[in-house]
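Hi F.,

I've been meaning to write this up properly since the lab meeting, where we talked about keeping a consistent format for the predictions we share between groups. The idea is simple: the sequence comes first, exactly as it goes in, then the structure tokens exactly as they come out, then a line or two of notes. No screenshots and no reformatting. I'm using this chain as the first example so we have something concrete to point to.
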Amino acid sequence: MKKIIQRVVFASVICFGFLFVGQAKEIDRVCKYYSGKEGGYLGVDVTFYQDGTFSGLQYYDGHQINPARSISSFKNDDSVQTNYQSLKRCPDYIMNITTVNPTQLNVAGYYLIYGDSDRDNYLKYQGVLTSVTWAALSDKTSLEDDLIQKEDGEMEISSSVKEYKKTYYAEGSDHQFGNLTFYFKYDFQNQYSLSSKMILFHQTQNVIFVHSGIENYTNEIIKPVVEKKTWPTDIYCGKLSVSLSIRNQAKEMFGGEVAAGSIVCAVQKNLFTGAMNDLVHYKANAKTDGNDGQNEDDKWSQVEDLGYTMTDITLGQICKSQNFKVPMRYVGWILMIVRLLIPIIIITLGIIDFMKAVVSQNPEELSKSIKTIAIRAIAGVVIFFIPTVIHVLFSLVDDWTDYKTAYSDCTKCITSPKKC
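Output, unedited:
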């Protein structure tokens, strides 16, 4: 009888283990922190999950960390969880304290901080034997999220200011930068551009844009966009190194000052010198040129009117369409319910079958019930990991990086219907 009870407990533990292993955490928000000067050298991405937990990845400490260093715990975990649940926003700062001072060893570690006063309190530990580095929440956190939601084109902010956005796509698949977004505001009253920015969605570094002078930049890039809705057709980006640099006539237009390791973009390829093969070539989406400001959902609904064939509609446009999102969202909710019910059903049926075999005191029935439980458990695990298997299979396809972003948009409604 003792062995039978042990087997029942063992089978239950296995089933419950499969239940928790199969549950993937849903991301609530990613907060990006970077400092290359003011607070020292520190770059960290912190991911907050919907279950209230959070973790970090440090990718920069004065040099690029590859692979990124995992931060599994912070010194002030409890207070961060409380503040995040009440404020529902990213902490203002991240801080790292390292020390060899025996009296300060208890404060060493990573901190997430809300407010300048708390940051200043920790800065007091800075000394000969203690190093304190910190980074502020990057503007890219809010701007990037904002840009993802906006369609390409123009939007009126006030009677005299409009904002413009254009997405560029890299040629080929051998690069790590991701899609490029070019964004700026234009003040018609004073006739100059504001808040110019370029974002590479697979990079956390600031992107520096160079051109052959501010007057040329205004006449050759800004004015054609504002007056004719004509964007540059090509943009070239690369990370500066001993083999790739820029020429003297290249002037920084926005994004900061050029230095070794900077990511630099330009519409004029001849502003670069050295290993030109290291450059990533971006092109504007030809199918949307001249249609800036048109809503993607409208474009989807007007396929026949515009004379497009299905091959003219990109995967990204399909995935952004509300006509596609609604059924996918329902599929996502159904899949979520199924993933929750299957472990409960497996455990319940397994215990019932096992108890029947125990009551019957038939060794053959007992052995049969154990095999049945094992088969059901394996089936449950397979169902849990079907999304993972699909991701792996797709990643093996040639030119996968060209489709990865659009594919992620499609699967978001299925894997996280609440965020779709």
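Notes:
Confidence is low (pLDDT under 50) at residues 13-24, 286-316.
Residues 322-360 form the longest helix (39 residues).

If this format works for you, I'll send the rest the same way.

G.
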